[in-house]
Each structure stands twice: as C-alpha cells, then as structure tokens.
Amino acid sequence: SGTIHEKYVEFSWKGTDDFTSEEQLTYSYKLEPYENTWSDWTRETSINYEDLAEGKYTFFVQAKDYRDNVDPTPAERSFVIEKEETADPPPNSPPDTEILTGPEGIITETSIIFTWIGSDDETPTSNLKYSYWLDGKDLDWSSWTSSTEQEYNNLHYGEYTFRVKARDESGEEDDDSPAQQSFSVEPWDPNRFVTRVVDYSVTGNLDKIKGAPHGCGMYCGSGHVLTLGNNGHVTVGFNVVIVNEPGYDFIVFENPFSINGT
C-alpha cells in the first residue's frame, strides 16, 4: 500500500467461514486497472505481478465457500507506483593548470622553455592532456599532448603571452581560465640598463642601486652613466649582478669603484 518504486508486487491472503474450512475455500481476484475482470476461482492464496507501469492500482480478492456463497465485501488494497527520483551527480569540475617555469617581464633571450602541471578532482594528473598557445608566434592552440613542457627558439623581438589548458578523461577543459604568462623579448641596450636611480642603499658589504626596469641578462660588466638628480652625471665602472624583481633591477657592486675619480 502507499507509494512504491518497484514494478514487482506480490499479494497473499487467507479466508475464513462459519461452516467451510479454510482449505475448502476458493478465491477470485483482480488488479485494477491492470485487470478489468475477476480471475477464475482458485485455492491459491497468493499472486504476483511484474513490470507494472507507473500509476495507481487497487487489488481486490474475494472468497467463496463450498455452498457457492461469495464474499459480498471483497478485501482490497491500493497503492501507487512512482519512478524513484535519484539525485543528479555533481557536475564534473574542469581541470586546472599552473605554469611552473617560464619567462615573464622583459627578457633578452630568444630561446625559452615553459613547464606546467595540471590537476583535476577525478582524473589523475598523469592522465591529463594539454594544449598550449604562444600568442605572438603560434597561430592557434596546439594539438592535445601529455607533455608538460614546450620550447621555443629564435623568437623575434616583441610581446608574447603563453597560454596552456588541460583536458580530463571526461572531456572537460579549462577553456575559461587557462594558465597564462606574458613577457617581452627586447634587444640588450646598455643605455637602457639603468634609466634613473630611485634608491641607493648599503646592505652588509654590498652597495646596491635600485633602478628602473631594463636589464642585460644575469651577468654583465660595463661602465654606465647614471643620472643623479640635477647635479650632472657620475660615471661608474663596475661588474654587476642583476637580480630581477617586478618593477626594478638590483645592481650589486662586486668590485671597488670610483665616482669622479675619487
């Protein structure tokens, strides 16, 4: 009775009479609207139905004694078959990609390598596929690959943006948020190495000048003219180590130097 979700039902019953024993009683039944007529009389006390459609049903059963007296008030039981609602599985989130190494900012090298890694809530990292695109060189996204690095050589001077996205085993892609990193390739020009002095400090035994961004690689030795305020120019000769940080180059003096011959 009530609401069920199975398409298989079984009914069993028993009858009683003042004069006829239980073993001598016979029965007739029907399941409306599955059946519209009563069954033949039988001594069976159970029946099952299979593959019932969704909907409302009422089962009736009546008894008859050995004198052919029929029960005027058949027993009945009503029920409803409904499709069981199942919760929708949570949507599969697209994978995520992170660039591990690669140039950013201003560089002078024309050969570069990018490396990356992906992650997903269902697909193991080793089974992810990747597609990449270097805007400024490539015409479109690459074909899908399991590789997690890409090298470019002989880049022209200019601005570039590298993008990489992942695809999981279900076909989900992080199209909306691929990892990306921008950089510019510029020729080395010592006159652009330091364009202005914004800070000067001494840390330990190292004298540092913090200048505006522009560099010549990791190491270079040269003489440069630095504009210091409104008092003219100071010529400084030294070997330097360039430590690139956003917005500045740090110049670390490694050899003694002189200012205006002193």
Automatic annotation (TrEMBL):
What the entry lists under InterPro entries is as follows:
FN3_sf (IPR036116), Ig-like_fold (IPR013783), Y_Y_Y (IPR011123)
**Chain ranges passing through the membrane:** none
Residue ranges occupied by any Two component regulator three Y domain in the UniProt entry: 18-81, 124-185
Recall the taxonomic lineage recorded for the source organism: unclassified sequences, metagenomes, ecological metagenomes
Region Disordered: list its residue ranges. Answer: 81-102, 167-186
Kindly provide the name given to this protein in its UniProt entry.
Answer: Two component regulator three Y domain-containing protein
Identify one Pfam family in the record.
Answer: Y_Y_Y
